[in-house]
Write a structure and sequence with these properties.
With 373 residues, this protein is an alpha+beta fold. It is 31% helix and 24% strand. It is built from 12 helices and 15 strands. The strands form 2 sheets. An 8-stranded mixed beta sheet has the order 2-5-6-7-8-9-10-11.
Amino acid sequence: MDEAGVAIPGLCHIGFFCDGRENVLHLNTSGSAYDIGLQHGRSCPAAVGMAYEAWVQLEGVDPSWIEGGVRLVEDRLKRSFPEVLREMQGIADGSGVLYEHILTLNCLDAVLPAGKGWPRCSNIGFKDSDAGVLLGKTADWEVAGSEHFAVWQRYRPEADQGYAFIHYGCAGTLWSEGGLNEAGLGMVLNGLAGSGAGPDSVHWLCLTRGVLQYCRSVQDALDFLGRYDVMYWGMNLTLADVSGDMAFVEVVPGTRAVRRPEGDYLIHTNHCVCPETLERQPEKDVPSAFGVVGLRENSRARYETLERIVPGAPRTVAGMQALLRDRSRPGPISQNGEAGMRTAYAMVVAPAQGKMWGVEGFPPDMSFVAYQI
């Protein structure tokens, strides 16, 4: 890392930054899907185990529901994205955590009726800034101890298996909260409630990762996502590329909606805003629909905050970082207990610069660190 806090390619390492701050794990992985999983598991076995214990709370859940959910996801992945299962097997072999546990951790929304673990986050996009088109995002988690299993990863697949990318996620998983690939496509994710599992649908896990690994532009990503239906829960992806193109796409079971900015920015939280997808949004704010009581109100409060603070914010990297640190009430963008959630980390992605900044802990308390793809 240089004196400005920029991670120099080739000097990334596995482990914690030892500067006394709350930080995420840093993984540098390459090779086949299985090899990448094996490196992942071997590098942080304790973190993989802690992530499983933190996220997977199965007390009182019918074992047949668990088994049915896991097998349904596994079957769909075998048909459409078998490399995802090979990577999970590698994580299991490397960490010593059972494959069944790794699979369950990765597909919680298909296993737990309450859908615990689905990302509750805020997304922002600037059409232009001092670094070109810019994306920003917070990652809001509802479990304690995120500093022990949150992960930054450099992912280098084999030459014929897509693009290398950098992203943030969670130990033991293939979750991608957001990142940037070597083709210059950036993505940030937030979750949307939905329901249903159509006969040809696939788990969201492989689609969010697939955007970074297999797509080179916003339109390429939209075309990729358009080939699949998502099962159970949905997601919004805010996308930007080196050409300056930017859009968000709401993906819920059975349909999707794409929007490009009408002005110079985009915002999104955890509820659908497009007519095409609103009819698929659960009507009641109950645990079986949203995972935590109050998420609907929490999401709308954050959206109203973004509507208030984004239009007048400086169109700069520093301006985006300040938005992600917002603690205004109601609806703070960096959450600290609201609806049981805490912002585990945040990121800013600048595709034209080939750069991503991450604040690796609670954003109001820490500095952003820069990484070059």
